[in-house]
Model the fold of this input.
Amino acid sequence: MGALANAIGVSVGTLLGSLLRRIPESMKDTVMKIMGLAIVVLGMQMGLKTENFLIVILSLAIGAVIGELLALEDKITKLGDWLEKHVGSNKQGSISQGFITGTLIFVVGAMGIIGALDSGIRGNNDVLYTKAVIDGFIAIILTTTLGIGVLFSAIPVILYEGLIAIFATQIVRLVPDALMDQFVIEMSATGGIMIIAIGLNLVGITKIKIANLLPALVVAIVVVLIMHLF
Done:
């Protein structure tokens, strides 16, 4: 229920945001850049929480290589272009950009993992309900600048949090608390650097292929596990 509520919060926020898209281009550009700067600060807060920055660097480097080899950015862009034709948007490419940006902001972070574990183990959805409200407001702002593509980020939100909640008891049984805490910290820190890249892209400073960095989140888990074992 918590994961479902979070996905609904993102969806409702996106739909409300779509009603506010008819604003002057100059205002939209200013909002976009301010959002970019705010997202950079959010990413910095997450990135600085790492306990071992070497893990973050290795994860991003290896993840970037994997993402480039798989051409994830190109695949998601093609999917966005396909959705563009069927859903429609007044800005080419906004579907894929909105999807990638929304997915990283809503999925990466300790709140989603901890909330999903709490939901699965104790049936307590308070954390995810709170996250649903926060994400809903963020979705409103993102949609005014990035378009309806933000709506599709609700899908990975419910899959990610839902699967963690379903397998929560098994996860806690197999993974010690200390190791789980390290997973959450380093994955959030790695995601934080990716969120900084999103903010810089929105401001127009860089053109980093964010989707090609997504494997870094999985690599972070693997690196933490290897360092824990050896």
About this structure: The radius of gyration is 17 Å. The first helix runs from residue 2 to 19.
